[in-house]
Structure formats: C-alpha cells, structure tokens
Amino acid sequence: MANLLKGKKGIIFGALDENSIAWKTALRVKEEGGEFTLTNAPIAMRLGTINKLAEACNAQVIAADATSETDLNNLFTKSMEVLGGKLDFVLHSIGMSPNIRKGKEYGDMNYEWYLKTLDISALSFHKVLQASEKLDALNEWASVVGLSYIAAQRAYPDYTDMAQAKAMLESIARSYGQRYGTKKKVRVNTISQSPTKTTAGTGISGFDVFFDFAEMMSPLGNASAEDCANYIAVMFSDYTRMVTMQNLMHDGGFSSSGITNNLIERLSK
Ligand SMILES: NC(=O)c1ccc[n+]([C@@H]2O[C@H](COP(=O)([O-])OP(=O)(O)OC[C@H]3O[C@@H](n4cnc5c(N)ncnc54)[C@H](O)[C@@H]3O)[C@@H](O)[C@H]2O)c1
C-alpha cells in the first residue's frame, strides 16, 4: 500500500515509546502519505522519546494533557495552523489508571483515582470530540478513532476500573458518533485491540498470562501493534466512509471463540 492517506491531515495522541500503538500508527500513516501533529501529556513527553518519532515523521509535537479543555483547544488551533487547514483524522490512544499503577484491588478502590482513570481514559475522548466540534476543526468525512479492550464487555480480575473506562469510551463513540455524523458527517469509532506488549498493557498484573491465553483463543493469534496501526490507517481512509458508531473487534477472532483446539490440547495434558 502507499498513499492511502495522501492529502489527509490529523492529530495522533499517545506515542510514548516505540512499543506504543500510536507510535506504530504514526509511522504507518506517514508511509501512507498522511500529515499530522503528535501530542502527549507534558509529563509523558519528558519520560518518552517522542522527539525521535517527530523527526522520523517530520511532525510537530504539541503538548496537551487530554483532560484539559484549554490544552485541547490550543492543540486543535495550533494543529490547524501548522498543517494549514482543517483535519481529517484523530487517533485517541490514551489510557491510564492510578489504581492499577498503585496495585489497588477492585474491592479497595481509591475513588479519587477512579475518577482520574475515567477522566484520562474515557472522558478525554468526549473532550477531544467536543473541542474539535466547537472549533469546527474537522472536515466532512473525518475519522476519529479511540482504542478499547474487550474488558468493556467481559470481566478480567486485574483490569479493575479500566473496564468501566473502556465501556464509557465505547459509549461515547456511539453517542458522539450519532451527533457528529448528523451535523458534520464526521465518523467516530473504537477499535477493540488484542492484548499488546506496551507500557499500558504490561502494567496490568497477570498480563503475560492473558496475553498467552488470548493467543491460544484466537484462531489468527493476537493482533500486534503493527496490525492495529494498519487497521487504524484503513479507518482513516475513504474506504471506510460509511463506518461509524462501532466498536470494531481487532483481535484475531478472540471475541467470537468459545474454545479452540489449541486450548483443548493444552488443557487435556
Ligand atoms: N496494550 C494493550 O494490551 C491494549 C489492548 C487494548 C487497548 N489498548 C489501548 O490502547 C491505547 C494505547 O495504549 P498502548 O498500549 O499503546 O500503551 P502506551 O502506554 O504506549 O500508551 C498510552 C498513552 O496514554 C498517554 N496518556 C496518559 N495520560 C495522558 C493524559 N492525561 N493526556 C494525554 N495522554 C495521556 C501516555 O502518555 C501514553 O502515551 C490505550 O487506550 C490502551 O488502553 C491497549
């Protein structure tokens, strides 16, 4: 493929390091001819290596805490200035739970942190959409994508408050997708991705076990970060113009599998 996204402009949130799904997406979108600004929370930019990515993609970096309406307004305004017009795509690739970081169990949640989880990982998606609508920052047929996980539908012991954040994220995609589609023909979707070895992913305790379990339960195996980047590029393209308000499973078939021969053999031992 080449030039799938030629002439398209956008914003990519969430590239922390080269394992990040957003990092791989930035490289893919660049390869496909898209232009974009990169953004992350100021603190993450100090920890990460985003400038290396910015150089590789010839992209400008604009810091923004995705929970701050002021930062988001500045990000959209500056991005339109830098890129010379309205935008065609936005990737929201953001997730963080202070409760998970601090190893809190589901029966011992710190509620201030719980609210932070929801604000950073879900409400920020609404803030991004509302800021873009108020500034009229998106072209018709623009595509906004958020990243979700199947814990929105099924219980996972150590995913704790992130499960509610993902359920809320998917719900925002439906509600805002309906509004934005009607008003401006902008589409909004979430992609529910396989477990992936990134900073956010491996921060969940027991990650290696459910990574291996998902691998065995998925006829195609787990989808990698590179696979996810390819799918996002397609979702940004004109080939998916009529797809909106969906939670799109990108999981090698995991979500439709009851059990697989692979697991039967493993458990028969
Ligand atoms: N890794 C997995 O197993 C997996 C599976 C399904 C979905 N996802 C989702 O994919 C998305 C990207 O995560 P990843 O796996 O690439 O991990 P990652 O740790 O590389 O990315 C998470 C990003 O969120 C950013 N972030 C945190 N707080 C922020 C804030 N206040 N403002 C702006 N940015 C902030 C971080 O700086 C980081 O860049 C997340 O939504 C995650 O939940 C991950």
3D structure, described in words:
The protein has one domain: NAD(P)-binding Rossmann-like Domain (Rossmann fold), CATH 3.40.50. It is 48% helix and 14% strand. The protein has helices at 21-31, 42-47, 50-57, 69-83, 98-101, 111-134, 160-184, 199-202, 207-217, 225-236, 261-268; strands at 9-13, 35-39, 87-92, 138-148, 187-193, 247-250. The N and C termini lie far apart (44 Å). The site of nicotinamide-adenine-dinucleotide (NAD) has 27 residues, from helix 1, strand 4 and helix 8.
- Reported by name, the CATH topology is Rossmann fold
Task: Supply the number of helical segments.
Answer: 11
The number of distinct structural domains comes to 1
For the largest beta sheet, what order do the strands appear in spatially? 2-1-3-4-5-6
Number of DSSP E strands: 6
Low-confidence stretches: none
- Name the hetero compounds present: nicotinamide-adenine-dinucleotide
Helix percent reads: 40-55%
Structural class, by secondary structure, is alpha/beta
CATH class: Alpha Beta
CATH superfamily: NAD(P)-binding Rossmann-like Domain
| Strand percentage | 5-15%
| Dominant shape | globular
Separation, N- and C-terminal Cα atoms: 44 Å
Mean pLDDT: 96
Largest sheet data: 6 strands, parallel
For the record, the CATH architecture stands as: 3-Layer(aba) Sandwich
Rg is 18 Å
Secondary-structure element pattern, one letter each: EHEHHHEHHEHEHHHEH
Question: In a nutshell, what does this entry contain?
Answer:
The protein has helices at about 20-30, 40-45, 50-55, 70-85, 100, 110-135, 160-185, 200, 205-215, 225-235, 260-269, and strands at about 10-15, 35-40, 85-90, 140-150, 185-195, 245-250.
